Q: What sequence folds into this?
């Protein structure tokens, strides 16, 4: 065969290989992105996870939402206190023993947990002894206490009003009135825990993304 044909054939082969590789990578990336968004899997799942594994996932949803984390499968053999192999779910972005929502192990799936914040931290660990298929879990987000109101007038109130509002609530009222009108908000009663800069409990007014910061002082 003449050299030109050999070079041309090799070039075509290289191009085909590169194209196939790129397509495979794109498909893998798409599948991974789609799966990771809704499902959390222990390493090697559904095959056995390795010994001495440490894996962590930070799951973040938009502000003002909560995250529900539920197992669809749990095969994490451990001792009765889940000290050897375990899955821990923290309310917040880091390991924090006082924000531990769930420590799971064993062979039967446990009840779902829901965070109060918009970020949870999931940590899986195994020791050098037992192993199992691990876990598969899903997460979903929900907006607690969200009101979308329209009209020319109305009343809003905190949850349970006039009884005490619950702890750990993040409520949003979105008030829309007709074009070229303004919204006037007048408080008829305010009883909110008062802390410096309203860091604990506060009311704010957000005009689109502009926080106008009407912080309301406590009145007796
Ligand atoms: C740990 O969790 C507690 C209770 O949720 C919280 O008050 C505290 O700020 C957290 N600490 C850190 C460092 O995140
Ligand atoms: C609120 O947002 C609207 C639309 O972005 C803007 O026209 C208006 O000036 C804003 N009002 C205040 C008080 O910031």
A:
């Amino acid at each position: 065969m003449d050299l030109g044909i050999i070079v041309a054939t090799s070039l075509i082969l290289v191009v085909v290989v590169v194209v196939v590789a790129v397509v495979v990578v794109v498909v893998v990336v798409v599948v991974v992105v789609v799966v990771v968004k809704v499902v959390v899997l222990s390493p090697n799942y559904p095959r056995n996870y390795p010994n001495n594994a440490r894996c962590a996932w930070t799951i973040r949803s938009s502000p003002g939402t909560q995250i529900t984390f539920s197992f669809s499968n749990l095969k994490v053999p451990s001792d009765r206190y889940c000290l050897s192999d375990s899955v821990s779910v923290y309310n917040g972005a880091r390991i924090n023993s006082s924000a531990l929502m769930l420590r799971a192990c064993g062979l039967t799936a446990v009840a779902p947990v829901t965070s109060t914040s918009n970020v949870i931290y999931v940590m899986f660990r195994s020791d050098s002894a037992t192993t199992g298929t691990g876990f598969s879990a899903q997460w979903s987000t929900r907006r607690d206490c969200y009101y979308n109101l329209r009209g020319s007038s109305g009343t809003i109130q905190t949850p349970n009003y006039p009884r005490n509002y619950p702890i750990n609530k993040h409520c949003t009222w979105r008030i829309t009135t007709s074009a070229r009108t303004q919204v006037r908000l007048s408080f008829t009663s305010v009883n909110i825990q008062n802390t410096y800069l309203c860091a604990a409990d506060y009311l704010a007014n957000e005009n689109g993304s502009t926080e106008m910061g009407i912080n309301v002082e406590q009145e007796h």
Confidence is low (pLDDT under 50) at residues 29-37, 208-220. The longest strand covers residues 65-75. Residues 153 and 184 are 9 Å apart (CA to CA). Residues 3-38 form the longest helix (36 residues).
